[in-house]
Structures are given as C-alpha cells and as structure tokens.
C-alpha cells in the first residue's frame, strides 16, 4: 500500500488503484459505525504503518503531504464518524501542489507564463525586436533538495549589431565616420556631385537604410542600398498639346512634366508623367486627339458672317495665336462679298460634323451684273475689267464718250453698283451748240426732255456775274456771264483804304491815305487785278523822322530829341514804365524840346511816336472769350502803330455791341487787351411731355441735354 508513495504527481502511480481499494473496503465494513481503511489521496498518504481493515468509531488517521505537495492550513487527519471518514479530503484537500518563485523580469524582453508557476509548469522567454536571446528559451518548475527551482536560469537579451553599411559606386553614406551599428541605426546615401555642365547622378531607390534583425539573431541592412546612375528621359513631345509645367533642357530621375491639349483636342492618357530609372516616362507620354472642327472652309466669293444681330450667330473660341475651334453641331454662317449676291435655295452655312469635319458647301454667291449700257450718239469704253460671269459686273467702271457733233451731258465715268445699277445714272450725248467758254470758270451741259442748257460756274476765288444758266438758243442773243476776281482785303499799316468794303471784286480801284506823321511809299491807287492780286502792290506808310533832331541809337531802342543827355535818360526810363504799367501817370517837369514837333505828354497814353525796336509785332495772344476779326487772323506780323480789332468768340457776347482795338507799340508789344465777352446761355427748354430731360451742365453755350422718353413712348426727333 505504501509502494506508490514514492511517485511524484503526474508521473504515473497507483492512485486509481488505491481509490478502488478504498471503495471495496468500505463496502465490507460492518454497519455498526465502524469505518473501512482510510482513503488514499493523490496529494497525501496516511502516516500509520499498521494495515487495518476496520476502524472503530472515533478512531483517527493522520496524513502527511506527498512529495511535491505542501500542507494547507487545515488539520492533516480524518476521523471515523458514523461509518464515514471526515472531513472529506476530496472536497477539501489539505495539501496543495508546490510552486516555483516568479523568475523575475527579462530586460529588453519578456517572460510568458503559460499556466501557472506550479511544479511541472513551463515558462518561455523571448526578446524584444532588435535583441538576441542569450541562454535557454524555456524553463520548468522542478522539485529540488531545497524545495522547488527552475530548470534553467533567466537568459539575457543583447541588442543586435549590423556590419558596416555597404558602399555604392558614385555615392556615399552618412555613416562613413562610424564604427559600430546596432539595431535601429540608419544611414542616408547621396550621389557624388558632377561638373555643372554634366548630367547629375540620380539616386535610384530609398535614400536611407536601417539596421534590422533577420531570424531573430542576425543584423542586416534593409532595404537594399540605392544606386547612383545617370538617368535621362527623352524630351516629351505631344502633338497638338503643350507643356504647362516641368520645363527643362534635360529630364532626370523623378522629374515630372505636365501637359494639356490645345483647344479642340482631348487628352488621351495621364496629364502628369514622371521620368523613371529605366530612362522611360511613366505613365507613357499622352496624346491629343481631335475633338472639334477648326478652320471653317473658304467658300468662293463669300466671307464669315460676324453679324451680332443674328440670333443664330455662333462662333468658335480661341486663345491668342491659336486657331478657332468649333464643337460638334456648330453652324458657321457666311455672307456674299461685295459684288456678289446669294442664290436662292442654296445653303449659306457649314456645320461641324461628328467626324470633326465640315459639311460641304460648293458656294452660293453669284456676281452682281449691271445691264449693258447704251448711249445714243456715243460709245462705251471699259476702264476696269473685273467681272466674271457677266459682261458688266460690280465694281467695273466705264467711260462714256460722244460722237463728233455731240457733247456729253452728265459725268463721263460710271460704275456698276452693288445694287446692279449704274451710278451715277448714265450720261447722254446731246447736240453740240458751240460750247461757250469763260475765263476762270467752267461750263457744263444740262440735258432735259424739253431743253438743253449750259451751266456756268466759277473757280474758287472768283464770283459769277450774270446768268448762271443759258440755253443753246440764248447763246446768240444773250451776253455770257463772267467770273470776276475776288481780291484779299487790303491792309495798309498806319493808313486808311477808301472805299472800306468787306469784299473787293472786278478791277475795283482803291485809294490809300497815310495817317498823320507818315508818308506814302508806292502807288496810292492800286486796283484788283484779274489774278486776284492788287496791282501795283499795295503802298506802305512809313514814319517821318523830324528834321533837325539827333537820333539816340543806343541799341536802337528809342528815338527822342531832348536838349541834354540827362533829359534823354529820364525820358527813356519814364516811357519804359508807361509801357509796362498801363495807365500809370508819370510827372516829368521842365522838358523842353528843340524839335519841330512838340513832345507828347507822358501823363496820358499818347500817340506812340517812339521809333520801334524791331519795327513789327507778332500776332496778339489768344484770349478765351475774344478773337481777332477775320481780316487779321492770317496775318503773321504787324507794323508799328498798326491797329487790330477784336470781336466775341462764338457762344460769347458783350453787354454792349462793341468792337475793341489794340495797337502795335514801339516795344514790339500790344497795348492792353481785355476779356470783355461773357458766355451766352440758352432759354429754358420747358416741359418735355411724356419724358424727362437730363441736364447737368446748365444752359450755357456748349452744354448738352439728353431727352429720355417714358416707358411706352418713342422719340420723334433727336434725343440730344
């Protein structure tokens, strides 16, 4: 019975047999409260050495824990009570299995406890990523002399190391100065530099590699190191497309290019491509496929209809420098060119079809023809010949000439118009009744159904005197009109012209007289000649220098006769001030002269007898409200003492109807000229029925007002 006590738990033994024997003995025990042999437990054995089959009421049996078990805090004996052993060790075991202590933490690793730490249980050891296990990977809880212990000690986890990173041709890495590389270390590769004009090396692959672990123990570099190679991709060419980014003379590894198609074309493929390590573009270079119509066809004698008024007006779209493109279904209309007109029932447009071609149109325009001209007693000569398809077409010109004994009534040249008629109307040839001639004029024949007339007109600068029209019958009985010359208005400085007219014509003779102090140089009685000039030339009025006086010629500034040099200086300064400051009164006493003519007073603006510096004045300055009268406007210079007259500009008026004058002074300047005209105004326009007036500038001359009709009304007249 004690033979099985030397077997450890879980190692095979007589425990089932002991249990069976206990059950049999219990069956044979007497029913008088006695108990059979004590039960055999897998965790404990009875200490009694006497083998008994029957135990008396109250008898006890002490147990001891089997090997590998330890006492629990309960009594280690059972008693026979009423024929049963109690307490029942199967329901309340008093020995438990021994366990090993916790093995502790594994630095840079971890311990995996599969079940528990009891006798016979096994634990596993493993290291963290990048660390290698030095020692046993498992350990089992065993019984030892001292109790329990682990079969193997706790291992170590050491970090994995890698060899030096591999070198690559044409490149280098960042770890060349280091000697030791462990798990997690990384290096970065770069390619060597090249001369500026050379194509650089491209790094193919990952630029960085790291120290990793393979088979949990070996340190290796991952991924594979990159390569340094010269990569060039061909220039990408996309017909009907254009590059919008990625411009360059050469393309190397990882360079990108982006494309778009021209208007009217559709991109087939990817718009973005990249140069890869095989010297090819990925994805492949795209293509541009036609997706519209372009360049509408040329139709004979027709041109595009650009009219904005057409509801069906439809044009293509384009960018500067690119052709127009038209989507499928677009209709382009045409108009006939000048000299042509559209034929009925023929199409006047083309349409963009689904195959991106234009519908056919052989033409619909025919030339505009004029009727064959016919002139009695004359002939027709072509001046230009541009007609095709007809004898006389737009814009052909013809010349009409008359037979001997006939003259042309009308214009000699006619042209075929766009309307298909001759313009002007064809001339006619009428009998020649000895065409008259007049000097400085021209004669034209006028033909009518009831009479033939001669029309007389004068050349520019001449005026017709007599009847402007004479019939052929009147030529023998009537005096022909004549063209009399119109001479320019005679201008004589410092003199007067008699008679004083606004217009001089037809050999009129004038008389010229000089003002006091001036003498006449030339013929005093010129006449208006046939060539529109005065003959002889207009005379001049020159200033008379008094005899017995000396000329003060310092700079030819002014001439005065005074008794001594001091008086001369005083007079010069005083007169200079009188010219610069108008109406300034100067008092000069004791001026005595030896001249035959008295010296004028300096207190008033006198008749200017001072000899001029240059002898002439430039035209007066332009003023805002006044202007020179017409007879002075084209004159470039004015003589000393010559007067000019002014009048108000158009749109301006004076309070009193008056003409102001200015005189050329000896200093070459003009006497005082004033602005004496004010701007005219228009009367109030009054109410504008069924509309309104927009007026922003008032009623002054030159301002405008706009008329706007109310809704439902339209203008009758001008809107401004």
UniProtKB/TrEMBL annotation:
Alphabetical list of InterPro entries matching this protein: C4bp_oligo (IPR040514), Compl-Cell_Adhes-Reg (IPR050350), Sushi/SCR/CCP_sf (IPR035976), Sushi_SCR_CCP_dom (IPR000436)
Signal peptide (UniProt feature, chain positions): 1-33
Keyword Signal assigned: yes
UniProt-listed Pfam families: C4bp_oligo (PF18453), Sushi (PF00084)
Native organism: Ornithorhynchus anatinus (Duckbill platypus)
Biological process, per Gene Ontology: negative regulation of complement activation, classical pathway; T cell mediated immunity
SMART domains given in the database record: CCP (SM00032)
PROSITE patterns (alphabetical): SUSHI
Lineage: Eukaryota, Metazoa, Chordata, Craniata, Vertebrata
Residue ranges of every copy of the Sushi domain listed in the record: 33-97, 98-159, 160-230, 231-290, 291-367, 368-431, 485-543, 615-679
Annotated spans, Disordered: 597-618
Entry protein name: Sushi domain-containing protein
Superkingdom to which the source organism belongs: Eukaryota
Xref: SUPFAM superfamilies: Complement control module/SCR domain (SSF57535)
Keywords for this protein: Disulfide bond, Glycoprotein, Repeat, Signal, Sushi
Any GO CC annotation of this UniProt entry: plasma membrane
Disulfide bonds: 261-288, 402-429, 514-541
């Amino acid at each position: 019975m004690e033979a099985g006590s030397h077997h450890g738990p879980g190692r095979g033994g007589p425990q089932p047999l002991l249990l069976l024997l206990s059950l049999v003995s219990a069956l044979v025990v007497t029913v008088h409260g006695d108990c059979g042999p004590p039960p055999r437990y897998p965790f404990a054995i009875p200490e009694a050495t006497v083998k008994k089959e029957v135990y008396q009421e109250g008898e006890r049996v002490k147990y001891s824990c089997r090997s590998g078990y330890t006492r629990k805090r309960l009594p280690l004996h059972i008693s026979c009570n009423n024929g049963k052993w109690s307490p029942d060790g199967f329901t309340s075991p008093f020995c438990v299995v021994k366990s090993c202590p916790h093995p502790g933490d594994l630095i840079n690793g971890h311990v995996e406890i599969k079940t528990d730490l009891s006798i016979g249980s096994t634990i596993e050891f493993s290291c963290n990523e990048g660390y290698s296990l030095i020692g046993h990977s498992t350990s089992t809880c065993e019984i030892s002399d001292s109790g329990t212990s682990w079969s193997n000690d706790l291992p170590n986890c050491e970090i994995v190391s890698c060899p030096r990173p591999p070198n690559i041709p044409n490149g280098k890495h960042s770890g060349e100065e280091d000697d030791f590389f462990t798990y997690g270390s990384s290096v970065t590769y770069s390619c060597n530099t090249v001369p500026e004009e050379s194509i650089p090396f491209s790094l193919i692959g990952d630029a960085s590699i790291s120290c990793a672990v393979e088979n949990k123990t070996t340190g290796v570099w991952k991924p594979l190191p990159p390569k340094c190679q010269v990569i060039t991709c061909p220039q990408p060419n996309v017909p009907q497309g254009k590059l919008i980014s990625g411009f360059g003379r050469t393309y190397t590894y990882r360079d990108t290019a982006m494309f778009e198609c021209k208007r009217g074309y559709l991109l087939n493929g990817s718009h973005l491509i990249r140069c890869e390590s095989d010297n090819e573009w990925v994805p492949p270079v795209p293509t541009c496929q036609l997706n519209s119509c372009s360049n509408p066809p040329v139709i004979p004698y027709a041109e595009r209809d650009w009219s904005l008024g057409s509801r069906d007006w439809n044009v293509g779209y384009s960018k500067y420098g690119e052709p127009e493109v038209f989507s499928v279904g677009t209709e382009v209309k045409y108009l006939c060119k000048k000299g042509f007109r559209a034929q009925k029932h023929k199409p006047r447009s083309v349409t963009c079809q689904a195959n991106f071609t234009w519908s056919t149109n052989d033409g619909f325009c025919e030339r505009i023809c004029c009727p064959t001209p016919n002139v009695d007693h004359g002939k027709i000569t072509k001046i230009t010949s541009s007609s095709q398809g007809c004898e006389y077409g737009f814009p052909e010109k013809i010349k009409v000439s008359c037979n001997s004994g006939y003259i042309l009534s009308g214009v000699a040249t006619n042209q075929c118009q766009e309307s298909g008629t001759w313009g002007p109307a064809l001339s006619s040839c009428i009998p020649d009744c000895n065409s008259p001639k007049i000097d400085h004029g021209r004669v034209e024949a006028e033909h009518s159904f009831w009479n033939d007339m001669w029309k007389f007109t004068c050349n520019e600068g001449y005026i017709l005197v007599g009847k402007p029209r004479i019939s052929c019958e009147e030529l023998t009985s009537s005096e022909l009109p004549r063209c009399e010359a119109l001479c320019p208005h005679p201008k004589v400085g410092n003199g007067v012209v008699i008679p004083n007219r606004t217009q001089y014509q037809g050999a009129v003779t004038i008389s010229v007289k000089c003002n006091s102090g001036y003498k006449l140089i030339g013929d005093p009685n010129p006449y208006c000649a046939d060539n529109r000039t005065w003959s002889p030339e207009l005379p001049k009025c020159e200033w008379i220098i008094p005899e017995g006086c000396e000329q003060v010629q310092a700079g030819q500034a002014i001439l005065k006769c005074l008794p001594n040099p001091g008086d001369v200086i005083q007079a010069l300064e005083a007169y200079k001030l009188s010219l610069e400051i108008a109406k300034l009164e100067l008092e000069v006493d004791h001026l005595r002269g030896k001249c035959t003519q008295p010296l004028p007073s300096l207190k008033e603006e006198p008749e200017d007898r001072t000899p001029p510096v240059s002898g002439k004045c430039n035209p007066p300055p332009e003023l805002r409200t006044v202007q020179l009268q017409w007879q002075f406007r084209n004159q470039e210079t004015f003589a000393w003492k010559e007067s000019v007259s002014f009048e108000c500009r158009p749109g301006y008026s004076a309070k009193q109807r008056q003409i102001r004058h200015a005189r050329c002074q000896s200093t070459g300047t003009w006497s005082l000229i004033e602005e004496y005209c004010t701007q005219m105004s228009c009367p109030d326009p009054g109410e504008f029925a069924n509309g309104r007036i927009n007026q922003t500038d008032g009623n002054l001359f030159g301002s405008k007002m706009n008329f706007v009709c109310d809704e439902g009304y339209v203008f009758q007249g001008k809107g401004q």
